[in-house]
Design a protein that fits this description.
The structure is a single chain. The chain is an alpha+beta fold. Helix content is 23%, strand content 27%. It has seven helices and 17 strands. The strands form four sheets. Strands 7, 8, 9, 10, 13, 14, 15, 16 and 17 form a nine-stranded mixed β-sheet that branches. The protein has a four-stranded antiparallel β-sheet with strand order 3-2-5-6. A two-stranded antiparallel ribbon has the order 1-4. Strand 5 (61-63) and strand 6 form a beta hairpin. The chain is elongated, with a radius of gyration of 21 Å. It starts with 15 loop residues before the first strand and ends in a 5-residue tail after the last helix.
Length: 248
C-alpha cells in the first residue's frame, strides 16, 4: 500500500540555513537555534557560527561539543491512518503502519491508534519527541471526533467529561462537545487502551467511527486518508515550545 501514498521524502543536497539545519536535526526549534547561534554555542568548521549563514554538505557543525551531521536529519510526519492499519513494528504483521508507509527512513509512531480507528498519527525518528508527547503526566491534548450508535444526550456528555470507570481506574476529566445527533468531540490528556471505546461502552454506547483530528497543535485538516506530509517549520516550532519543559 505504501506506493499509494504521495512520497515527500527528498535527499537534501543543497545548502540550508543554519537554524533550519539545527531544527531538522532535532536539536531545538529555529527560534532557540538563533539564540544558540547568538550565544556562540554553535560552530561551523571550528569557527563561531553567524546568524543567517547557510550550511553546505560536508561541513562540520557543532553545538557545544556535539557534532550535528546530515545523517541526524529529523523526520516528523503527520499521517492520516486508515482503519484496518495496525500501529505495530511487528514485521509479520502485513497491515502494519510501518509497512503501509514504506518510508525510506526508519520511523515509528507517536502513540497508537487502534486498528479500527483512523485519523491523525505522528511518526518520527526522534525518540525524545515520542517520550515527551506520550508520557501521560505531561497532559498533552489529543482530540477525537466520535460517532456512536445512539443519540448523544446531555447526560452522556456530562458523564464522559467527568470521568468514567475503566481498567481499574477513573478516566481523567476531559472536554466533551456535541457535534451532531450521533457525534461528539472529545479532548483527552491521557491514552488508556481503547479509552474512548471503553468509556462509551460503560455508558451503554457503541462507537461506530472514531477519528483523531488533532495532536497538540498538529491538526489533521484536509490531509487525505492514507497520505502523509512533513510538519511545517511553524508546526515544529510550536511543538518544540509545548514539549520544551516536558519530562521524558
Amino acid at each position: 500500500m505504501g506506493n499509494q501514498i504521495k512520497t515527500q521524502f527528498e535527499h537534501k543536497n543543497g545548502p540550508v540555513r543554519l537554524n533550519k539545519y539545527l531544527s531538522e536535526a532535532g536539536i531545538c526549534s529555529r527560534r532557540e537555534a538563533d539564540r544558540l547561534i547568538q550565544s556562540g554555542t554553535v560552530t561551523v568548521e571550528g569557527k563561531p557560527a553567524e546568524m543567517g549563514m547557510r550550511i553546505y554538505p560536508g561541513q562540520t557543525v557543532k553545538v557545544g561539543r556535539k557534532v550535528v551531521s546530515r545523517g541526524d536529519e529529523m523526520v516528523v510526519l503527520a499521517v492520516n491512518k486508515p482503519a484496518g492499519i495496525v500501529c505495530t513494528e511487528e514485521p509479520r504483521e502485513r497491515n502494519s503502519i510501518v509497512r503501509f508507509l514504506d518510508y525510506p527512513v526508519r520511523i515509528t509512531y507517536v502513540g497508537r491508534l487502534d486498528k479500527d480507528s483512523r485519523g491523525l498519527l505522528l511518526m518520527t525518528n526522534n525518540g525524545d519527541i515520542i517520550n515527551k508527547i506520550m508520557r501521560a503526566a505531561n497532559k498533552h491534548e489529543k482530540e477525537y471526533k466520535v460517532t456512536v450508535d445512539k443519540e448523544v444526550t446531555g447526560r452522556f456528555l456530562e458523564q464522559m467529561a467527568a470521568g468514567v470507570p475503566i481498567l481499574d481506574t477513573v478516566t481523567r476529566p476531559c472536554q466533551v462537545r456535541q457535534m451532531g445527533k450521533y457525534t461528539f468531540s472529545i479532548i483527552l490528556t491521557q491514552g488508556l487502551n481503547r479509552q474512548i471505546r471503553r468509556m462509551c461502552e460503560v455508558l451503554g454506547y457503541h462507537v461506530k467511527d472514531l477519528v483523531r483530528i488533532r495532536i497538540m497543535n498538529i491538526k489533521l485538516g484536509k490531509l487525505r486518508e492514507g497520505e502523509y506530509r512533513k510538519l511545517t517549520d511553524a508546526e515544529l516550532d510550536c511543538l518544540y515550545g509545548q514539549i520544551k519543559d516536558s519530562s521524558n
